[in-house]
Design goal:
By secondary structure, the protein is mainly alpha-helical. It is built from 13 helices and no strands. The protein is globular.
């Protein structure tokens, strides 16, 4: 994938991280996604047997959860534990975004990975409990699952120095979440392009209200319906296996990993874009030339 024009203001280590993140979005699905792919035929037949009312219930549950979480974005999250973790990594006091900007990217990566792993474990426990109920447990699973997903994305946002603003961050959080559900490589490529365009708007200072308007124009209902279909198909695997709780835990663990890794690389890209812009403003000349085969 070609490097963005702003990459010419990055130093060697940051440039390597940029390449790594861009390449990550081109990778095929993980192990569990491939495993669940073995059940595509049986799951498709099972999906056709799911009543329309059940499909709609999943979409409504996700829509309600998205609305609730968006309305309360940032209100229930305490930044201090994240700052404490960053202080431990940096070996000095980190009190906010300015200090985070000066940290080595490797330290931010370690803190964000620990956040993803903690949320994966929590989601696995919750999925194991709801999985014992089979498909009906899906409706019990949705609020807790997506609450964990939103909290994880917000923690990663703060880790990379982007405070949670109720208006400016809503569209970005939803785009990260949507992209994290994608397993098709072409859909991921298009999603990455949209994400980068959104990050450029945020970096250019597009008003938060304008970003919020874009969320509403796209429609939470359409997004919820798409996520509901995808999640229900994943959860159907637990009705095909003997140990539904094990599959439920595994599906949740993998989903949090997919969305979490997407969030890590998405905010990493945004962090690197900001670092490049700051260096451009400060120094006025690029670190290197942008080659055509970058």
């Amino acid at each position: 994938m070609p490097l963005p024009p702003w990459s010419v203001w990055l130093e060697a280590g940051d440039l390597a991280a940029l390449r790594e993140s861009l390449e990550w979005f081109q990778r095929p699905p993980g192990g569990l996604s491939r495993f669940l792919g073995l059940f595509d035929g049986p799951m498709e037949r099972a999906w056709q047997k799911v009543p329309e009312s059940a499909r709609n219930s999943a979409a409504r549950a996700i829509h309600s959860t998205l609305q609730t979480v968006l309305e309360t974005t940032g209100r229930s999250l305490t930044e201090q534990p994240i700052l404490d973790a960053l202080c431990a990594e940096a070996g000095r006091e980190i009190s906010g975004p300015d200090g985070i900007r000066r940290m080595a990217l490797s330290g931010l990566d370690r803190v964000s990975r620990r956040s993803v792993e903690a949320h994966r474990r929590a989601a696995a426990v919750e999925g194991g409990i709801s999985g014992m109920a089979g498909l009906p447990g899906l409706l019990l699973d949705v609020p807790a699952l997506y609450g964990l997903i939103f909290r994880m994305i917000q923690e990663i946002s703060i880790t990379f120095g982007f405070p949670i603003d109720p208006h400016a961050e809503k569209a970005h959080i939803l785009k990260v979440m949507d992209l994290g559900h994608q397993t098709d490589l072409e859909a991921r490529r298009l999603g990455l392009e949209e994400l980068q365009a959104m990050q450029a708007m945020l970096g250019a200072g597009v008003p938060g209200r304008e970003m919020e308007k874009q969320v509403l124009l796209r429609g939470l209902g359409a997004l919820a319906e798409k996520l509901g279909t995808g999640l229900t198909r994943r959860k159907l695997a637990q009705t095909l296996a003997v140990f539904g709780s094990v599959v439920g835990a595994g599906v949740n663990y993998q989903l949090l990993g997919d969305v979490g890794d997407t969030a890590r690389h998405a905010y990493r890209l945004r962090f690197l874009r900001r670092r490049a812009q700051e260096r451009q403003n400060r120094e006025g000349r690029p670190t290197r030339k942008l080659s055509l085969d970058s």
